[in-house]
């Protein structure tokens, strides 16, 4: 249920995205801070090792009285040192003489080579200047620990020298970072610091980042919930309106304040669909009402005929008359049901036979000529002026259109009038025109002549057996051929029915 909701899905995605971005950002900051702090630590240790190295090589210190070495601490640095509490030193058992010269005399080893000397105060000065704390040590070339700070790890093994390297090197051990360097003479100086403060700072930073990240996540998710609620409100309104419409409120529509927004356009499309559905529904209901009404009349006639025939004994002649009347009524009902069936099929899209190339001119001529006796009988002039009009379609159904239109023209044209039938192909269309000089159609009736069951004079036409479905069937057939049918008429002057059908390609 939760995952089906778009709002919850959006929240989930937003949550994933925020957690990913915040975690990535936090990790990056944490790593950068770690690398930077370690870099600063290394720089400090390098500086200390360089100063120690200088002191060991006999460089100047405040107590040495000797000349100041290149790169050694300056007067300013020396003054600075005095402000920093001095580091404590201790000897290394019997292996070390902290302040004095080595056992075999100052400056010389047993082997007779020059021995490392650490002038008074030079060791302290070398370790001053940076952040307080840390440890340092100096070893002779024989590996004897000469000096070391009081503070620092209990075990302080001499580093391993790779070849004859005099490079500054680093080693990580037991939570300590140590920088060391061997002099050209082989003495070794080392400065180191515990990594614990750095790790503590990193842990603190991690907690701070997690706290800020959680706050940003909560804020982001809250904002996302508010935004999605706002964005989905119109969709919720559409759903509610659609539910009401499907529940029977067919005339209701979706209200939209922003018709140009995405949701507004969707509401517009839905409203247009509801309009069409409502119109179709109304049409359907009227059609059903009309069909029932049209069938009820002949049925009533049939019932009355039968009842009056059976009410008492009748002569064979009277029975024959009753049966003839019943037959005519039944035939009228059959025509009506046939028309209804045909319309229903055309509505469903399967009211046409196989579409074949045909000449609408020929079809029109044949159907019109078939009706000529009727025109003559009524004292009308029938003009058939057809030319080739190639279309693709169902010849029988198109013939039915011609017959309906010409029969109507004959029907509604008084004696002495004229009925003209023309076909012509022009451009992309073929047209069929049926023109009469008859009674015409009233302006208010014109928009309805193609409606189902429309008759200008309803009662009289029904009595004459006209159902008012002829033109509706014509329109359905023409539209099934992708064509259009229209009418122009003036009462007392006559009517012109025009059919346009696209030119048919040869099959
Ligand atoms: P029906 O002819 O069965 O009544 P139609 O659908 O063919 O049904 O015609 C509908 C109505 O349109 C007719 O009742 C008549 O009022 C009007 N009509 C049709 N054709 C013509 C015409 N040529 N001249 C005048 N009125 C016409």
What does this 3D model show about the protein?
- With 507 residues, this protein is an alpha+beta fold.
- Helices cover 49% and strands 15% of the residues.
- Strands 1-3-2-6-5-4 form a six-stranded antiparallel sheet. Strands 8-10-11-13-12 form a five-stranded mixed sheet.
- A hairpin with a 5-residue loop joins strand 5 and strand 6.
- The radius of gyration is 55 Å and the shape is rod-shaped.
- About 11% of the residues have low confidence.
- Adenosine-5'-diphosphate binds next to helix 9 and helix 11.
The end-to-end distance, rounded to whole angstroms, is: 56 Å
Low-pLDDT sequence parts: 60-114
Helix content: 40-55%
Bound small molecules, by name, code or SMILES, are: adenosine-5'-diphosphate
Structural class: alpha+beta
Chain-averaged pLDDT: 84
Principal-axis shape: rod-shaped
Strand composition percent: 15-25%
Cross-sheet strand order for the largest sheet? 1-3-2-6-5-4
| SS element count, helices | 11
Q: Could you state the order of secondary-structure elements as H and E?
A: HHEHEEEEEHHHEHHEEHEEHHEE
Count of spatially separate domains: 3
């Amino acid at each position: 249920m939760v995952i089906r909701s778009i709002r919850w899905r959006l929240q989930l995605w937003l949550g994933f995205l925020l957690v990913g971005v915040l975690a990535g950002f936090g990790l990056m900051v944490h790593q950068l801070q770690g690398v930077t702090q370690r870099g600063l630590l290394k720089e400090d240790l390098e500086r200390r090792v360089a100063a120690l190295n200088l002191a060991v090589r006999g460089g100047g210190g405040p107590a040495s009285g000797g000349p100041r070495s290149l790169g050694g601490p300056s007067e300013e640095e020396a003054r600075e040192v005095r402000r920093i509490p001095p580091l404590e030193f201790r000897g290394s058992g019997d292996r070390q003489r902290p302040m004095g010269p080595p056992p075999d005399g100052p400056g010389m080893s047993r082997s007779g080579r020059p021995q490392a000397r650490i002038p008074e105060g030079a060791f302290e000065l070398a370790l001053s200047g940076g952040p307080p704390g840390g440890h340092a040590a100096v070893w002779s070339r024989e590996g004897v620990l000469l000096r070391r700070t009081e503070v620092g790890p209990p075990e302080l093994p001499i580093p391993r020298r790779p070849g004859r390297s005099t490079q500054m090197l680093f080693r990580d051990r037991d939570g300590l970072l140590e920088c060391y360097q061997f002099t050209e003479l082989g003495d070794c100086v080392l400065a180191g610091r515990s990594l614990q403060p750095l790790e503590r700072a990193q842990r603190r930073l991690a907690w701070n980042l997690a706290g800020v990240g959680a706050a940003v996540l909560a804020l982001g998710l809250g904002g996302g919930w508010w935004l999605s609620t706002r964005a989905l409100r119109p969709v919720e309104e559409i759903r509610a309106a659609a539910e009401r419409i499907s529940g029977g409120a067919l005339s209701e529509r979706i209200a939209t304040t922003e018709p140009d927004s995405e949701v507004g356009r969707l509401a517009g499309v839905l409203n247009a669909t509801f309009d069409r559905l409502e119109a179709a529904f109304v049409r359907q209901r009227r059609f059903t009402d009309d069909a029932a009404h049209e069938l009820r009349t002949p049925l009533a006639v049939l019932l009355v005929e039968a009842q009056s025939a059976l009410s008492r004994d009748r002569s064979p002649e009277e029975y024959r008359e009753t049966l003839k009347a019943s037959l005519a009524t039944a035939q009228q009902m059959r025509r009506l049901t046939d028309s209804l069936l045909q319309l229903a099929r055309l509505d469903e899209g399967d009211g046409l036979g196989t579409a074949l190339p045909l000449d609408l001119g020929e079809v029109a001529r044949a159907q019109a000529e078939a009706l000529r006796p009727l025109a003559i009988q009524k004292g009308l002039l029938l003009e058939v002026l057809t030319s080739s009009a190639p279309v693709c379609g169902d010849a029988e159904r198109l013939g039915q259109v011609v017959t309906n239109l010409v029969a109507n023209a004959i029907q509604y044209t008084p004696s002495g009038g004229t009925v003209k039938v023309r076909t012509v192909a022009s451009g992309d269309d073929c047209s069929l025109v049926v023109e009469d000089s008859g009674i015409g159609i009233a302006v208010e009736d014109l928009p309805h002549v193609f409606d189902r069951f429309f008759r200008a004079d309803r009662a009289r036409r029904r009595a004459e057996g006209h159902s008012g479905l002829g033109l509706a069937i014509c329109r359905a057939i023409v539209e099934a051929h992708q064509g259009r049918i229209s009418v122009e008429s003036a009462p007392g002057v006559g009517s012109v029915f025009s059919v346009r059908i696209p030119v048919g390609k040869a099959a």
